[in-house]
Predict the 3D structure of the following.
Amino acid sequence: MQTLEYKLKGKDVQFSSIDDAIRTTQFIRNKCLRFWMDNPTVRLSELNKYCAVLAKEYPFATKLNSQARQAAAERTAHAISRHVKPDTKGNRSNPPRFQKDCRSVEYKTTGWKLSPDRRSITFTDGYNIGILKMLGTQDLCAYSADLIKRVRLLRRVDGYYIQFCLDTERIEEQEPSGNTVGLDVGLSAFYTDSNGEKVKCPRFLRKAEKRLKFLQRMVTRKQKGSSNRSKAKNRLARKHLQIQRQRKDFVVKAARCVVISNDVIALEDLQIRNMLKNHCLAKSINDAAWFQFRMWLEYYGKVYGKIVVFVPPQFTSADCSRCGNRVKKSLSERTHCCLCCGCVLDRDENAARNILILGLQLVLKLYPGAQGNSETSVSQTLVERRTSATQYAVSASHLVEARSPRF
Ligand SMILES: [Zn+2]
Protein backbone atom coordinates (compact mmCIF):
# COMPACT_ATOMS: atom_id res chain seq x y z
CA MET A 1 0.00 0.00 0.00
CA GLN A 2 1.33 3.38 -0.99
CA THR A 3 -0.06 6.78 -0.01
CA LEU A 4 0.06 10.02 -1.96
CA GLU A 5 -0.88 13.26 -0.26
CA TYR A 6 -1.95 16.66 -1.60
CA LYS A 7 -3.08 19.90 -0.06
CA LEU A 8 -6.56 21.03 -1.07
CA LYS A 9 -7.50 24.43 -2.42
CA GLY A 10 -11.15 25.40 -2.20
CA LYS A 11 -13.71 27.80 -0.78
CA ASP A 12 -14.75 28.11 2.85
CA VAL A 13 -18.19 26.70 2.00
CA GLN A 14 -16.56 23.57 0.60
CA PHE A 15 -14.38 23.15 3.66
CA SER A 16 -17.36 23.50 5.99
CA SER A 17 -19.04 20.73 3.93
CA ILE A 18 -15.96 18.57 4.54
CA ASP A 19 -16.35 19.34 8.26
CA ASP A 20 -19.95 18.13 8.11
CA ALA A 21 -18.87 14.90 6.40
CA ILE A 22 -16.20 14.37 9.07
CA ARG A 23 -18.78 14.94 11.81
CA THR A 24 -21.07 12.34 10.25
CA THR A 25 -18.19 9.85 10.11
CA GLN A 26 -17.63 10.39 13.81
CA PHE A 27 -21.35 10.01 14.51
CA ILE A 28 -21.51 6.68 12.68
CA ARG A 29 -18.36 5.44 14.36
CA ASN A 30 -19.72 6.27 17.80
CA LYS A 31 -23.16 4.81 17.04
CA CYS A 32 -21.55 1.56 15.90
CA LEU A 33 -19.49 1.45 19.07
CA ARG A 34 -22.62 1.94 21.19
CA PHE A 35 -24.31 -0.86 19.23
CA TRP A 36 -21.40 -3.19 19.96
CA MET A 37 -21.36 -2.20 23.65
CA ASP A 38 -25.06 -3.06 23.93
CA ASN A 39 -24.66 -6.31 21.95
CA PRO A 40 -21.13 -7.59 22.64
CA THR A 41 -21.81 -10.89 20.88
CA VAL A 42 -22.56 -9.23 17.54
CA ARG A 43 -20.30 -10.15 14.62
CA LEU A 44 -18.18 -7.26 13.39
CA SER A 45 -19.39 -7.71 9.83
CA GLU A 46 -22.88 -6.88 11.05
CA LEU A 47 -21.75 -3.37 11.89
CA ASN A 48 -21.72 -2.71 8.14
CA LYS A 49 -25.38 -3.64 7.94
CA TYR A 50 -26.10 -1.43 10.91
CA CYS A 51 -24.97 1.55 8.78
CA ALA A 52 -28.04 1.10 6.58
CA VAL A 53 -30.28 1.11 9.67
CA LEU A 54 -28.64 4.31 10.85
CA ALA A 55 -29.11 5.94 7.45
CA LYS A 56 -32.85 5.24 7.59
CA GLU A 57 -33.14 6.57 11.11
CA TYR A 58 -31.08 9.75 10.69
CA PRO A 59 -31.67 11.60 7.39
CA PHE A 60 -28.38 13.55 7.58
CA ALA A 61 -26.43 10.28 7.53
CA THR A 62 -27.81 9.47 4.07
CA LYS A 63 -25.99 12.51 2.71
CA LEU A 64 -22.67 10.75 3.21
CA ASN A 65 -21.70 8.26 0.51
CA SER A 66 -22.77 4.73 1.45
CA GLN A 67 -19.25 3.31 1.12
CA ALA A 68 -17.90 6.13 3.27
CA ARG A 69 -20.47 5.15 5.92
CA GLN A 70 -19.20 1.59 5.74
CA ALA A 71 -15.61 2.76 6.04
CA ALA A 72 -16.61 4.56 9.26
CA ALA A 73 -18.12 1.33 10.60
CA GLU A 74 -14.95 -0.54 9.61
CA ARG A 75 -12.93 1.86 11.75
CA THR A 76 -15.00 0.81 14.76
CA ALA A 77 -14.70 -2.86 13.83
CA HIS A 78 -10.93 -2.48 13.59
CA ALA A 79 -10.69 -0.78 16.98
CA ILE A 80 -12.88 -3.48 18.57
CA SER A 81 -10.95 -6.36 17.03
CA ARG A 82 -7.67 -4.97 18.35
CA HIS A 83 -9.23 -4.99 21.80
CA VAL A 84 -10.83 -8.44 21.53
CA LYS A 85 -8.07 -10.39 19.79
CA PRO A 86 -4.53 -10.32 21.22
CA ASP A 87 -1.71 -9.56 18.77
CA THR A 88 1.31 -11.82 18.08
CA LYS A 89 2.97 -10.80 21.36
CA GLY A 90 -0.26 -11.49 23.30
CA ASN A 91 -1.00 -7.80 23.94
CA ARG A 92 -4.45 -6.30 23.67
CA SER A 93 -5.27 -2.65 23.21
CA ASN A 94 -7.55 -0.78 25.59
CA PRO A 95 -11.29 -0.89 24.89
CA PRO A 96 -12.26 1.63 22.18
CA ARG A 97 -13.66 4.93 23.38
CA PHE A 98 -16.15 7.35 21.93
CA GLN A 99 -14.42 9.72 19.57
CA LYS A 100 -14.78 13.46 19.89
CA ASP A 101 -11.96 14.80 17.75
CA CYS A 102 -12.32 12.96 14.46
CA ARG A 103 -10.32 14.68 11.75
CA SER A 104 -10.86 12.64 8.63
CA VAL A 105 -13.43 11.05 6.37
CA GLU A 106 -12.62 8.10 4.16
CA TYR A 107 -14.21 7.28 0.80
CA LYS A 108 -13.68 4.00 -0.99
CA THR A 109 -14.05 3.69 -4.75
CA THR A 110 -17.25 5.72 -5.21
CA GLY A 111 -18.43 9.21 -4.32
CA TRP A 112 -15.54 11.00 -6.02
CA LYS A 113 -14.17 11.59 -9.49
CA LEU A 114 -10.73 12.73 -10.62
CA SER A 115 -10.37 15.23 -13.44
CA PRO A 116 -8.63 13.96 -16.64
CA ASP A 117 -5.39 15.85 -15.81
CA ARG A 118 -5.65 14.64 -12.18
CA ARG A 119 -5.08 18.08 -10.72
CA SER A 120 -8.54 18.34 -9.18
CA ILE A 121 -11.17 16.08 -7.68
CA THR A 122 -14.98 16.27 -7.48
CA PHE A 123 -17.00 14.80 -4.62
CA THR A 124 -20.45 13.77 -5.73
CA ASP A 125 -22.26 12.67 -2.57
CA GLY A 126 -24.98 14.53 -0.65
CA TYR A 127 -22.62 16.99 1.00
CA ASN A 128 -21.98 18.78 -2.30
CA ILE A 129 -18.32 19.40 -1.59
CA GLY A 130 -17.80 20.05 -5.30
CA ILE A 131 -14.52 20.51 -7.17
CA LEU A 132 -11.34 20.87 -5.13
CA LYS A 133 -7.91 21.70 -6.56
CA MET A 134 -5.01 19.50 -5.44
CA LEU A 135 -1.63 21.08 -4.72
CA GLY A 136 1.45 18.93 -4.53
CA THR A 137 4.38 17.53 -6.44
CA GLN A 138 3.68 13.79 -6.28
CA ASP A 139 2.67 12.33 -9.62
CA LEU A 140 -0.74 10.69 -9.48
CA CYS A 141 -0.81 10.29 -13.29
CA ALA A 142 1.80 7.54 -13.02
CA TYR A 143 -0.77 5.17 -11.50
CA SER A 144 -3.88 3.69 -13.02
CA ALA A 145 -7.19 4.80 -11.48
CA ASP A 146 -8.13 1.21 -10.53
CA LEU A 147 -5.27 1.17 -8.03
CA ILE A 148 -6.88 3.85 -5.86
CA LYS A 149 -8.62 1.94 -3.09
CA ARG A 150 -9.23 4.70 -0.57
CA VAL A 151 -9.55 8.49 -0.71
CA ARG A 152 -9.22 10.23 2.61
CA LEU A 153 -10.00 13.86 3.42
CA LEU A 154 -8.02 15.20 6.39
CA ARG A 155 -8.30 18.32 8.47
CA ARG A 156 -5.12 19.77 9.94
CA VAL A 157 -4.56 23.10 11.64
CA ASP A 158 -3.07 24.62 8.52
CA GLY A 159 -5.72 23.43 6.09
CA TYR A 160 -7.32 20.45 4.41
CA TYR A 161 -5.47 17.58 2.78
CA ILE A 162 -6.33 14.61 0.63
CA GLN A 163 -4.67 11.20 0.67
CA PHE A 164 -4.90 8.49 -1.99
CA CYS A 165 -4.18 4.94 -0.85
CA LEU A 166 -2.86 2.93 -3.78
CA ASP A 167 -2.72 -0.83 -3.99
CA THR A 168 0.93 -0.99 -5.12
CA GLU A 169 4.27 -1.75 -3.54
CA ARG A 170 7.16 0.62 -4.02
CA ILE A 171 10.27 -1.26 -5.17
CA GLU A 172 13.52 0.52 -6.04
CA GLU A 173 16.39 -1.31 -7.72
CA GLN A 174 19.80 -0.63 -6.24
CA GLU A 175 23.23 -2.24 -6.46
CA PRO A 176 24.25 -3.92 -3.17
CA SER A 177 26.89 -1.90 -1.35
CA GLY A 178 28.55 -4.81 0.50
CA ASN A 179 28.41 -2.96 3.83
CA THR A 180 26.89 -4.01 7.12
CA VAL A 181 26.17 -1.71 10.02
CA GLY A 182 25.02 -1.83 13.63
CA LEU A 183 23.25 1.18 15.13
CA ASP A 184 23.01 2.18 18.76
CA VAL A 185 20.34 4.83 19.24
CA GLY A 186 20.75 7.28 22.09
CA LEU A 187 19.76 10.64 23.44
CA SER A 188 23.01 12.58 23.15
CA ALA A 189 23.81 11.24 19.68
CA PHE A 190 20.76 10.22 17.62
CA TYR A 191 22.64 7.11 16.61
CA THR A 192 26.20 5.82 16.73
CA ASP A 193 27.11 3.24 14.11
CA SER A 194 29.61 0.40 14.39
CA ASN A 195 32.22 2.41 12.44
CA GLY A 196 32.22 5.09 15.12
CA GLU A 197 30.21 7.66 13.16
CA LYS A 198 27.83 9.75 15.23
CA VAL A 199 24.75 11.64 14.07
CA LYS A 200 23.66 14.48 16.34
CA CYS A 201 20.21 14.48 17.87
CA PRO A 202 18.34 17.49 16.46
CA ARG A 203 16.12 17.96 19.55
CA PHE A 204 13.43 19.96 17.75
CA LEU A 205 11.05 20.07 20.70
CA ARG A 206 13.71 21.31 23.11
CA LYS A 207 14.69 24.08 20.72
CA ALA A 208 11.09 25.22 20.30
CA GLU A 209 10.13 24.99 23.97
CA LYS A 210 10.56 28.67 24.66
CA ARG A 211 8.30 29.66 21.80
CA LEU A 212 5.74 26.99 22.75
CA LYS A 213 5.65 28.28 26.28
CA PHE A 214 4.97 31.78 25.03
CA LEU A 215 2.22 30.63 22.65
CA GLN A 216 0.61 28.51 25.35
CA ARG A 217 0.57 31.53 27.65
CA MET A 218 -1.08 33.59 24.93
CA VAL A 219 -3.89 31.02 24.75
CA THR A 220 -4.58 30.98 28.49
CA ARG A 221 -4.61 34.76 28.65
CA LYS A 222 -7.40 35.12 26.11
CA GLN A 223 -11.04 35.04 27.15
CA LYS A 224 -12.69 31.64 26.87
CA GLY A 225 -14.88 31.25 23.81
CA SER A 226 -13.51 34.40 22.13
CA SER A 227 -12.25 34.46 18.58
CA ASN A 228 -8.88 35.74 19.83
CA ARG A 229 -8.55 32.57 21.86
CA SER A 230 -9.25 30.37 18.87
CA LYS A 231 -6.68 32.33 16.85
CA ALA A 232 -4.10 31.85 19.61
CA LYS A 233 -4.94 28.15 19.78
CA ASN A 234 -4.40 27.86 16.06
CA ARG A 235 -0.98 29.51 16.33
CA LEU A 236 0.03 27.08 19.07
CA ALA A 237 -1.20 24.08 17.11
CA ARG A 238 0.71 25.23 14.02
CA LYS A 239 3.92 25.35 16.03
CA HIS A 240 3.34 21.78 17.22
CA LEU A 241 2.65 20.71 13.65
CA GLN A 242 5.88 22.36 12.51
CA ILE A 243 7.90 20.43 15.11
CA GLN A 244 6.18 17.21 14.11
CA ARG A 245 7.05 17.80 10.46
CA GLN A 246 10.68 18.76 11.20
CA ARG A 247 11.09 15.55 13.17
CA LYS A 248 9.56 13.39 10.47
CA ASP A 249 11.68 15.02 7.79
CA PHE A 250 14.87 14.37 9.74
CA VAL A 251 13.97 10.75 10.56
CA VAL A 252 12.96 9.87 6.99
CA LYS A 253 16.15 11.28 5.53
CA ALA A 254 18.36 9.59 8.15
CA ALA A 255 16.67 6.21 7.63
CA ARG A 256 16.93 6.43 3.85
CA CYS A 257 20.62 7.31 4.03
CA VAL A 258 21.37 4.33 6.29
CA VAL A 259 19.44 1.87 4.13
CA ILE A 260 20.95 3.06 0.85
CA SER A 261 24.55 2.75 2.02
CA ASN A 262 24.27 -0.65 3.77
CA ASP A 263 22.97 -4.15 3.00
CA VAL A 264 22.40 -5.34 6.55
CA ILE A 265 21.26 -2.98 9.29
CA ALA A 266 21.10 -4.21 12.90
CA LEU A 267 19.29 -2.34 15.67
CA GLU A 268 18.24 -2.96 19.22
CA ASP A 269 14.70 -4.24 19.71
CA LEU A 270 13.88 -1.53 22.25
CA GLN A 271 10.68 -1.63 24.28
CA ILE A 272 10.04 2.07 23.82
CA ARG A 273 6.65 1.97 25.50
CA ASN A 274 8.27 0.72 28.72
CA MET A 275 11.11 3.20 28.50
CA LEU A 276 8.61 6.06 28.32
CA LYS A 277 7.52 5.17 31.86
CA ASN A 278 10.72 6.82 33.04
CA HIS A 279 9.28 10.27 33.55
CA CYS A 280 12.66 12.04 33.48
CA LEU A 281 13.53 10.74 30.03
CA ALA A 282 10.08 10.48 28.42
CA LYS A 283 10.15 13.87 26.74
CA SER A 284 13.64 13.39 25.32
CA ILE A 285 12.82 9.88 24.09
CA ASN A 286 9.69 11.10 22.35
CA ASP A 287 11.62 14.00 20.87
CA ALA A 288 14.28 11.63 19.52
CA ALA A 289 11.58 9.66 17.62
CA TRP A 290 13.27 6.24 17.81
CA PHE A 291 10.10 4.42 16.98
CA GLN A 292 9.50 6.50 13.89
CA PHE A 293 13.12 5.87 12.84
CA ARG A 294 12.63 2.15 13.27
CA MET A 295 9.45 2.16 11.21
CA TRP A 296 11.06 4.10 8.38
CA LEU A 297 14.10 1.79 8.42
CA GLU A 298 11.75 -1.19 8.01
CA TYR A 299 9.90 0.59 5.23
CA TYR A 300 13.02 1.54 3.27
CA GLY A 301 14.41 -1.96 3.91
CA LYS A 302 11.47 -3.33 1.96
CA VAL A 303 11.68 -0.69 -0.75
CA TYR A 304 15.39 -1.16 -1.44
CA GLY A 305 15.51 -4.91 -0.70
CA LYS A 306 17.81 -4.65 2.34
CA ILE A 307 17.84 -6.63 5.56
CA VAL A 308 16.86 -4.86 8.78
CA VAL A 309 17.19 -6.98 11.94
CA PHE A 310 16.30 -6.22 15.53
CA VAL A 311 18.37 -7.83 18.28
CA PRO A 312 17.62 -8.15 22.01
CA PRO A 313 19.04 -5.10 23.82
CA GLN A 314 20.33 -6.88 26.93
CA PHE A 315 24.04 -6.32 27.75
CA THR A 316 24.86 -4.68 24.42
CA SER A 317 26.60 -1.79 26.16
CA ALA A 318 28.16 -3.89 28.93
CA ASP A 319 29.86 -6.62 26.89
CA CYS A 320 33.22 -6.11 25.22
CA SER A 321 32.82 -6.20 21.45
CA ARG A 322 36.29 -7.74 20.98
CA CYS A 323 36.49 -10.51 23.60
CA GLY A 324 32.96 -10.81 25.05
CA ASN A 325 34.01 -10.01 28.60
CA ARG A 326 31.18 -8.33 30.56
CA VAL A 327 32.30 -4.91 31.83
CA LYS A 328 29.56 -3.38 33.97
CA LYS A 329 29.33 0.38 33.79
CA SER A 330 27.01 3.12 34.96
CA LEU A 331 25.14 5.38 32.52
CA SER A 332 27.58 8.22 33.12
CA GLU A 333 30.65 6.22 32.07
CA ARG A 334 31.09 7.15 28.43
CA THR A 335 34.17 5.01 27.63
CA HIS A 336 34.43 1.24 27.42
CA CYS A 337 37.72 -0.07 28.87
CA CYS A 338 38.16 -3.86 28.85
CA LEU A 339 40.73 -5.23 31.32
CA CYS A 340 40.73 -8.62 29.55
CA CYS A 341 41.90 -7.57 26.09
CA GLY A 342 42.78 -3.94 26.66
CA CYS A 343 40.15 -2.69 24.24
CA VAL A 344 39.32 1.01 24.71
CA LEU A 345 36.32 2.31 22.78
CA ASP A 346 33.57 4.90 22.96
CA ARG A 347 30.69 3.41 24.94
CA ASP A 348 28.12 3.78 22.14
CA GLU A 349 30.49 2.50 19.47
CA ASN A 350 31.15 -0.62 21.53
CA ALA A 351 27.38 -1.13 21.85
CA ALA A 352 26.89 -0.62 18.12
CA ARG A 353 29.57 -3.25 17.36
CA ASN A 354 27.86 -5.70 19.71
CA ILE A 355 24.55 -5.04 17.99
CA LEU A 356 26.15 -5.72 14.61
CA ILE A 357 27.61 -9.03 15.87
CA LEU A 358 24.23 -10.13 17.21
CA GLY A 359 22.49 -8.95 14.06
CA LEU A 360 24.81 -10.92 11.79
CA GLN A 361 24.32 -14.05 13.94
CA LEU A 362 20.60 -13.59 13.48
CA VAL A 363 20.98 -13.15 9.72
CA LEU A 364 23.14 -16.29 9.51
CA LYS A 365 20.37 -18.22 11.21
CA LEU A 366 17.72 -16.85 8.93
CA TYR A 367 19.81 -17.42 5.80
CA PRO A 368 21.82 -20.53 6.77
CA GLY A 369 23.63 -20.75 3.42
CA ALA A 370 26.00 -17.95 4.42
CA GLN A 371 29.45 -19.47 5.02
CA GLY A 372 32.04 -18.25 7.47
CA ASN A 373 31.65 -15.65 10.14
CA SER A 374 33.13 -12.56 8.60
CA GLU A 375 31.09 -9.55 7.62
CA THR A 376 32.13 -9.72 4.00
CA SER A 377 31.01 -13.32 3.50
CA VAL A 378 27.61 -12.56 4.98
CA SER A 379 27.30 -9.56 2.76
CA GLN A 380 28.34 -11.57 -0.34
CA THR A 381 25.79 -14.26 0.38
CA LEU A 382 23.11 -11.64 0.65
CA VAL A 383 24.13 -10.15 -2.66
CA GLU A 384 23.71 -13.58 -4.28
CA ARG A 385 20.40 -14.19 -2.58
CA ARG A 386 19.06 -10.75 -3.08
CA THR A 387 16.32 -11.86 -5.42
CA SER A 388 15.01 -14.68 -3.25
CA ALA A 389 14.97 -12.89 0.08
CA THR A 390 11.79 -10.87 0.15
CA GLN A 391 10.66 -10.82 3.74
CA TYR A 392 13.27 -8.63 5.31
CA ALA A 393 12.45 -6.71 8.41
CA VAL A 394 12.48 -9.42 11.00
CA SER A 395 12.15 -9.01 14.69
CA ALA A 396 12.97 -12.54 15.73
CA SER A 397 14.70 -11.98 19.03
CA HIS A 398 13.86 -15.52 20.15
CA LEU A 399 16.10 -16.87 17.40
CA VAL A 400 19.24 -15.65 19.12
CA GLU A 401 20.48 -18.06 21.74
CA ALA A 402 22.92 -17.32 24.53
CA ARG A 403 25.33 -14.79 23.17
CA SER A 404 28.78 -15.90 22.08
CA PRO A 405 30.96 -13.39 20.25
CA ARG A 406 32.66 -14.88 17.23
CA PHE A 407 34.94 -12.22 15.85
ZN1 LIG B 1 37.66 -7.20 25.87
Observations:
- The CA atoms of residues 68 and 107 lie 5 Å apart.
- The longest helix spans residues 227-261.
- Residues 320, 322-323, 325, 338, 340-341, 343 surround zinc ion (CB under 6 Å).
- The radius of gyration is 25 Å.
